[in-house]
Design a protein that fits this description.
- With 420 residues, this protein is α+β, with helices and mostly antiparallel strands.
- The chain folds into three domains: 109 residues, Alpha-Beta Plaits, CATH 3.30.70; 90 residues, Chitinase A, domain 3, CATH 3.10.50.30; 166 residues, Trigger factor, domain 2 (Orthogonal Bundle), CATH 1.10.3120.10.
- Strands 6, 7, 8, 9 and 10 form a five-stranded antiparallel beta sheet that branches.
- A hairpin with a 4-residue loop joins strand 1 and strand 2.
- Helix 1 packs across helix 2, helix 9 packs across helix 12 and helix 10 packs antiparallel against helix 11.
- The termini are far apart.
C-alpha cells in the first residue's frame, strides 16, 4: 500500500491511497472464498459451484463486497501508519478498481497541532475575597424578606409592598407569556427588574400598568419585552425580629451569631468562586493570544450547534414561537460562531496541556462527576445508576474533567497577584 497526505484549507487533508496488486488479489481471494461458500448457482449445491461460474454469476456482488471491506481496511492502515488524529468520517471519492488496480481518495479533517510555547508562569490578578459587615447585614435582610409575613393592605402599592397580579408579556409586538395571580415585589432591592417595581408604585386594586423590561439572553444579547400588569391584591409585609429565635426559625442555628458566621462563609465562598472564574478567563485569554493555529471546522460547527440549542431553550422559556426563535438564531449566527471558535480553541489548548502534563482522569472521578450531575438535575437513584453505564455520558464527563484538571494546572503554575 502506498499513500500521500496533501494539505488542504485549514485542518482538511486529502489522503491518496493506492493498494499494491498483491494486496488487491489477496482481498479478492478472500471475498470470492466467502461468497463461494454460500453461492446459489443453478445445477450445483450451495457452496459447491466452480470458481469460474461463481465469478460469472456474482461479479457485481464481489465488486461491491470488495469495496465495502477493502476501503475501510486500507483507510485504517493509513491512519495507523500516519498517526493522524482524524475528526469525523472521511469523504471517499475517485474510487478506481480495475483488475489488480485499486485506489481512492479520502478527504478528512484532522486535529490540529497546537504550538503551545508557554503555559507556565503566566501573570494574572485575582480579586481578594473579603466579607464586610455590611454584606452580612444585607444577607440577613434578604433572609428577613424571605421569611416576612404578608397581609392584605388597603390603599395603593408602596415601595416594599407586594402586589398579586395578572400579567401578559410581549416581545416585538407578539405575545410571549400570560400568567395569573403572580406575586410581585415593589422593592427596588428585591425586584430583579427595577422598572417593574417602579411601575407598581401608586397602583390600586383593579388598576392596569404597563412597563418595558430589558432582558438578556445567555449569549449577552439585549432584548426589549413589554408587560401589561393588572393589580388584583395589595399586600404588606411584616419582617421578623432579628434575634436568636429568628436564627432557629430559618435553620439549625442556636444563635444569631452562628447564623451570621454561616452567612459570612457562604459569601466568602461565592466571592472566591467568582474570583476564580475571572482568573481562569484571564489566563485562557493569554493562552489564546500566545497560541495560533487553525481550528477544525467540524468541532467549531458542533460547538456552534450546541450554543444554538442553548439559545433555543432560553427563547422557549420566554414563550417565543418556533419561527421567531429560528429568526433570532439566524440573527445571532455570527456571534455564536465566534463564541464556538473561542470555546474550541480553549479546549484544544487545554487538551495539549493535559497531554504535556500527563494528566489522567480515573473511573472513580467519572463516577463521582456523573453522580453529582444527577443530583443537580434532581434525578432519582434508578436514573443515576443508569447514567453510570452510559458510555457516551462517561466520555463527555471524562473530557470535561480532563479540561478542568488542565486549567487547574495552569492556575497552579501562574504568578497571581492578589488585588483588593
Amino acid at each position: 500500500m502506498k499513500y500521500q497526505v496533501k494539505a488542504l484549507e485549514g485542518c482538511a487533508r486529502l489522503l491518496e491511497i493506492k493498494a499494491e496488486p498483491k494486496e488487491v488479489q489477496e482481498a479478492l481471494e478472500g471475498v470470492f472464498g466467502d461468497i463461494q461458500r454460500v453461492a446459489h448457482v443453478p445445477g450445483f449445491r450451495i457452496g459447491k459451484a466452480p470458481r469460474d461460474l461463481v465469478e460469472k454469476h456474482y461479479s457485481e456482488s464481489v465488486r461491491k463486497e470488495l469495496l465495502r471491506r477493502f476501503i475501510p481496511d486500507l483507510y485504517e492502515k493509513v491512519l495507523q501508519e500516519s498517526r493522524l488524529e482524524v475528526l469525523g468520517l472521511p469523504e471517499i471519492t475517485d474510487v478506481l478498481f480495475e483488475k489488480s488496480q485499486f485506489s481512492f481518495k479520502a478527504k478528512i479533517e484532522t486535529k490540529p497541532s497546537v504550538p503551545l510555547r508557554k503555559y507556565k508562569g503566566l501573570k494574572a490578578s485575582r480579586k481578594r475575597a473579603t466579607v464586610t459587615p455590611e454584606e452580612i447585614q444585607e444577607s440577613l435582610q434578604r433572609l428577613r424578606e424571605e421569611w416576612a409575613e404578608l397581609a392584605p393592605k388597603e390603599g395603593v402599592v408602596e415601595e416594599d409592598d407586594f402586589a398579586v397580579c395578572d400579567f401578559e408579556g410581549a416581545m416585538d409586538g407578539k405575545p410571549t407569556e400570560s400568567r395569573k395571580n403572580v406575586l410581585l415585589s415593589a422593592s427596588l432591592k428585591a425586584q430583579r427588574h427595577p422598572e417593574v417595581a417602579k411601575a407598581l408604585w401608586g397602583a390600586k386594586i383593579g388598576e392596569v400598568r404597563e412597563v418595558e423590561v430589558t432582558l438578556e439572553s445567555p449569549g449577552g444579547v439585549m432584548q426589549k419585552a413589554r408587560y401589561r400588569i393588572t393589580i388584583n391584591e395589595v399586600k404588606q409585609k411584616t419582617l421578623p425580629e432579628l434575634n436568636d429565635d429568628f436564627a432557629k426559625m430559618v435553620g439549625r442555628f442556636g444563635t444569631l451569631k452562628e447564623l451570621e458566621e454561616t452567612l459570612s462563609k457562604d459569601i466568602q465562598r461565592e466571592k472566591e468562586q467568582k474570583a476564580r472564574k475571572q482568573l481562569e478567563r484571564e489566563l485562557l485569554t493569554q493562552l489564546q493570544k500566545e497560541c495560533s493555529f487553525e481550528l477544525p471546522r467540524l468541532l467549531v460547527e458542533e460547538e456552534a450547534r450546541r450554543l444554538s440549542d442553548e439559545e433555543r431553550f432560553h427563547f422557549k422559556l420566554l414563550g417565543l414561537k418556533d419561527r421567531e426563535i429560528e429568526t433570532k438564531i439566524a440573527q445571532d449566527k455570527g456571534r455564536l460562531l465566534e463564541e464556538a471558535k473561542a470555546h474550541v480553541k480553549n479546549s484544544l489548548i487545554l487538551e495539549k496541556i493535559a497531554e504535556l502534563e500527563k494528566i489522567e482522569v480515573h473511573a472513580e472521578e467519572i463516577d463521582e462527576g456523573i453522580k453529582t450531575l444527577g443530583t443537580q438535575l434532581q434525578k432519582n437513584d434508578e436514573a443515576k445508576a443508569k447514567d453510570l453505564s452510559n458510555e457516551s455520558l462517561r466520555r463527555r464527563m471524562a473530557g470535561d474533567l480532563l479540561l478542568e484538571k488542565a486549567l487547574s494546572r495552569v492556575v497552579e503554575f501562574a504568578h497571581i497577584q492578589e488585588v483588593a
